[in-house]
Amino acid sequence: MKRLITRRTVGKLGLAALAAPHFATTVIGQAAPIKIGSSMAMTGGLGPNGKSALLAARIWEEDINAKGGLLGRKVNLIFRDDQTNPTTVPGIYSQLLDVEKVDLIMGGYGTNVLAPAMPLVMQRKKLFIGLLGLGVNVEFNYPNYFVMIPSGPDPKPSFTKGFIDMAMKQNPRPTTVAIVAADAEFALNAADGGRENAKKAGLKLVYDRRYPPNTTDFAPIVRAIAATNPDIVVVCSYPPDSVGIVRSVNEINFRPKMIGGGMVGLQNTSIKAQLGPLLNGWTNYDFWLPVPKMNFPGVADLMAKYQKRAAAEGIDPYGYYMAPQAYAQYQVLEQAVQATKSLSDATLANHIRKSAFKTVLGDIRFGKFGEWAESRVLQVQFRGIKNNDPTQFKGIETQAVVDPAAWASGNLIYPYEKARS
User: What pLDDT sits at residue 30?
Assistant: First the structure.
């Protein structure tokens, strides 16, 4: 099976997408605003996370306009729902640029919707700051692309490096690994990195397969993995898949020594609460949690504003995964505009390439392929979850940061069965 979105195939999407419904924030004041346009997953598989990002972006818009806007002009963010559907993306950005006449564009959320925007972005020579896209620019190598994701200069291995590194520190050390991934861009990129990490660790790969993105029954897949008896299992999945795989592992009573790694969705509070105790023992990536070591300037204020409004919006009540990343995405643009006093894409991109930025995620620099100059992907282990009450996930008692050591709030409980009990 081919990857859904690659440099070779992304151009075929063209401008075939139908115009999608859009959300535009209220224009404040009478002066012509600076219009910034973006796609955003408001529906589809990434919709719950996308709505969290959208609220954080609204908060940034309100904050910057309360300070007088940018270049003396108010800021107006315009979002269109990409429906978590890559085929809608080229049409959305074409409409934003040619019909809405936005001054700047920003990248949407996720690898699968950032990649199909790249040909148009490159053709128009636009600045493009994406949100949580993994390795999007490795194939394009476009100099005006940047991304708010802490995967660092070697993005593909980053999601599973800490997972495998921790496994290899155990006694006895694991010797075999299974890798399963959705047949979609992010999951395949993460699985590529998982293979690289496994090879470096000297692990024998006993299962390595992908499944169609529309898969709903994961029991046969989990049984096939269990039949190979791997010591550890790396899963690279999207939110609906992640729920199905966790449930199937528990139903089949599959007990590898360690399982998780690259699963999107397990960061979302509603999914955590839905799965409840079934999550105990799983170890998976994350980007930010309210551990004391990550209380960067401004992040507490952001989270207070977000959490005050989240319930009314019907979104993740805590927003730990999306809100800091989305807010920081716009902080980078804000600081670049303020420093250069320009809306020129080339001028802004040149400044971003060589500068550091103070954000709610700490100080950030960008390096190779527009990725963060330094990696900071967390591995988080779930334990002690007693029921399906979402308030269990407001603190860090049920979700310990176990890697990297610089940000850790607890130690890994190994094997999975021990952490599960």
Answer: 60
What are the tens digits of pLDDT across the range 357-384? 999 999 999 999 999 999 999 999 999 9
- Find out whether 233 and 177 touch, Cβ atoms under 8 Å: yes
295 closest CA partner among 283, 282, 304: 304
Q: What is the pLDDT of residues 170-218, one digit of tens each?
A: 999 999 999 999 999 899 999 999 999 999 999 999 999 999 999 999 9
Contact residues for 205 (Cβ-Cβ < 8 A; gap 6+): 176, 177, 178, 179, 195, 198
Rounded to an integer, the average pLDDT of 5-15 is 44
159 Cβ partners below 8 Å, 6+ apart? 134, 151, 190, 193, 194, 236, 261, 262, 285, 377
Contacts of 287 (CB under 8 A, 6+ apart): 132, 149, 150, 267, 321, 324, 325, 376, 377, 378
| Sign of the alpha-carbon dihedral angle for 48, 51, 53, 59 | negative
Q: How far is CA 314 from CA 55, 137, 240, 248, 325, in A?
A: 11, 33, 18, 28, 19
Q: Which two tokens stand for residue 348?
A: 């802004």
Report the amino acid identity of residue 159: F
- CA 121 distance to own-chain centroid: 21
The Cα 213–Cα 20 span in angstroms is 22
Q: Are strands 204-211 and 176-182 parallel, antiparallel or unpaired?
A: parallel
Token pair, residue 103, equals 């001054």
Provide, for the chain, the percentages of residues in helix, strand and coil under a 3-state DSSP scheme, each rounded to the nearest 5: 45, 20, 35
Residue 41: closest CA among 91, 94, 113: 113
Three-state secondary structure call for residue 24: strand
Spatial contact of 344 and 144, defined as CB atoms under 8 Å apart: no
Q: What average pLDDT is seen over the chain?
A: 93
Strands, DSSP E only, in 57-117?
A: 75-81, 104-106
Residue 381, SS3 per DSSP? strand
Can you tell me the mean pLDDT for 118-138?
96
Q: Where are the alpha helices (DSSP H) in 168-281?
A: 185-201, 219-227, 239-252, 269-275
Helix axis angle, 219-227 to 239-252, nearest 10°: 60
CA distance readout (Å), 399 to 49, 226, 299: 19, 26, 19
